Prior knowledge:
Elements: E1 3-5, H1 7-15, E2 28-34, H2 40-55, E3 58-64, H3 69-77, E4 85-88, H4 96-105, E5 110-113, H5 119-122, E6 128-133, H6 135-152, E7 164-170, H7 176-192, E8 196-202, H8 207-221, E9 228-231, H9 234-246, E10 261-262, H10 268-275, E11 281-285, H11 287-299, H12 305-312, E12 321-324, E13 326-331
Parallel strand pairs: 2-3, 2-4, 4-5, 5-6, 6-12, 7-8, 7-9, 9-10
Antiparallel strand pairs: 1-13, 11-13
Helix pairs in contact: 2-11, 6-7, 8-9
Amino acid sequence: MKFRLSHLGMLAFLLAGSPVTVNADEQKSLDVFYYALTDQYIASFKNDIDSLARKMNISLESFDANNDSGTQELQIANTLSNNKAKIVNLVRPEITESVIENCKKNNLRVIFFNRQPDIKLLDGYSKAWYVEGDSMLAGQMQAEMIISYIKANPQIDRNKDGRISTIILNGPEDHQATYLRTSAVTVKLFSEYNNIDITKLCGNFDSLKARGELENYVINNGIDKVELIISNNDAMALGALSVLNNEGFNTGNKKKNYIPVFGIDGVEPAIQAIKEGKLEGTLVNDTKEQARAILELAVAEEQDNHELGKKLNLKVWENGTVYIPYTKVINK
């Protein structure tokens, strides 16, 4: 089974700057706070950050909050006196204010990533930034893949009722990426089609949770009421795939018992499933490029966002946000 990496991926690679290496006698030390390293995507992200930090001669100390915001607040508070910049993957956006205020009191740089902080609060501190893939663009690009698939595969309407029965697997309700990805993909799809029926299931970005939600839906409604699956991330898409496999679908033969499943993130198991003809498409969230932006923001001397943008070869918005483009990976 062939698969294709969009030319945008090569373009992003060519445009990306080279990481800055810190001299041995000027080695920087940074603290990195993760919301939960049990999350496959976050664990993979950590590997990219760790690998690049070694190349840049940066020492890291990592903390795992195990999805507990109280634990994360305490972890950050206990490290404020060490004068290290803080890199934070928030458990909940509600703790943005306390994180920024603590860093501000201690004149520390803070770089948020993956989970969006309260953006309004970034404006109040010139040493705070947020690095992420553009979730709205991700939803739009996901819709583009789906539209192309529907046009090429009118047989998607398996039960021939004139409608496309669609499941959207959402992330946590309070996660900004959930809202942006879901709203963007649905708006673009509805601009092209008026025969798409959508059922939203909350999988919390978790494979097992998504699997359970879809299993219950299939038990109550039947597999015939599932003709398209759109997932806010790859973990949930893979959870959905296990349900489809148990129903005899998506086993590698696209000509028989196949339901297109689209994810976001580009984790390795999803890429492999696309190669095997079991998933239809995903978007690579370039964690290596995000890691570069995060680490360079953390060790830079500059505070001016325009100057930082030139240094990173990326757009740094006035409020301190830096968006990294996605790349399509499609089952061909």
